[in-house]
Amino acid sequence: LESQYPGTSGWICGSLQEDGSWKWVTDEPFSYTNWKEGEPNNQNNEETCIHLYTGMAWNDLPDEDTTFHSGYYCEWDTDTETYDFYGVYGGEVDDETARLVEEGKGFYYGTGEEGYDKSRAQQCFRTAVDGSSGEAWYYLGKVFSEDPDATETLYLRAFGAFQRAVVYGFQLGWAGQGDLYRKGLGVKPDYEKAMQLYQRAVDLGCIEGYHGMALLYDYGQGGEQDYEQALEYFLQSAESGYADAMYNAGWMYEYGCGTAQDFGMARMWYEKLLSSETASQELKDTASEELAWMNSQE
């Protein structure tokens, strides 16, 4: 748990019984403990529930304590591959939630009528997560992780948001977690872990995971720099419509990285990006600048 969800804490569903023993909510045998030194102490005769500290040590707290995170660590048997990519585990989102997500994406990418506005995007996604939208959790994680003034706490909130995206069936949450490990945001940089998370995204139908793999090879993170392998992954992602990969594929053809310089191929990918409905306006502006530069060279 510590390696998968670093820096988090929450309730673990154990309670104090009248006879002084502790019991799991599942009625499983209470055969393992990891109490923090000096715990449990049942302070004021009110601490009847187990809380997991950061560092994975246990502490007893009142069942209505609000000092710590209110989340739970839960365990269940399931097959993650049965989740719908754009669906929700346990039900579908209502029309209002779906509308909020689309409105938020319009502000996030700057593709809506009112243009780019990360603050309003965050407001939309925050409201939409109450409707159990995995997609809203994913984009909320993106907003948190891309905040230029982000603190370690905000990065950890991003990590948690990506995890919730997966729980609610939006598998891009795996790629979001991979980005945090690749960039070392809120967690120690771990390129092997990032690769595993990107691969999990790909295995569950999220071709965007290939884009993350491509960046690892492009920057030589976790191994030798390999432009050819990076381009291969960029193309796999770009051919499935991922706008960021379209830009990177175009750039590599433009400057001859991993392949012979080819303005024609570069122009093709930049133009595909410009016609993409999911590309941000910022990315489109950058692609237009590259097209203008290539035209000046011919």
H-E string:
EEEEHHHHHHHHHHH
Question: How far from one another are the termini?
Answer: 56 Å
| Residue runs with pLDDT of under 50 for 5 or more positions | 79-91
Computed structural class:
alpha+beta
Count the strands? Answer: 4
Average of the residue pLDDT scores: 87
| Share of residues in strands | 5-15%
Helix fraction by DSSP (H/I, runs of at least 4)? 40-55%
Radius of gyration: 23 Å
Helical segment count: 11
What's the overall geometry? elongated
- How would a crystallographer describe the biggest sheet? 4 strands, antiparallel
Oligomer: single chain
As laid out across the biggest beta sheet, the strand order is: 2-1-3-4
List the main descriptive attributes of the protein structure presented here.
alpha+beta; 298 residues; four-stranded antiparallel beta sheet; elongated
What would a concise description of this structure say?
The chain has 298 residues and is an alpha+beta fold. It has eleven helices and four strands; from the N terminus they run ββββααααααααααα.
Characterization of this structure:
- The model is unreliable at 79-91 (pLDDT under 50).
- With 298 residues, the chain is of the alpha+beta class.
- Helix 5 (172-183) runs antiparallel to helix 6.
- 49% of the residues lie in helices and 6% in strands.
- It has a 4-stranded antiparallel β-sheet, with no helix packed on it.
- It contains 11 helices and 4 strands.
- It has helices spanning 95-109, 118-129, 134-145, 152-167, 172-183, 191-203, 208-219, 227-238, 243-255, 263-274, 281-297, and strands at 10-16, 22-24, 49-52, 58-61.
- The longest helix is centred in the C-terminal third of the chain and has 17 residues, at 281-297.
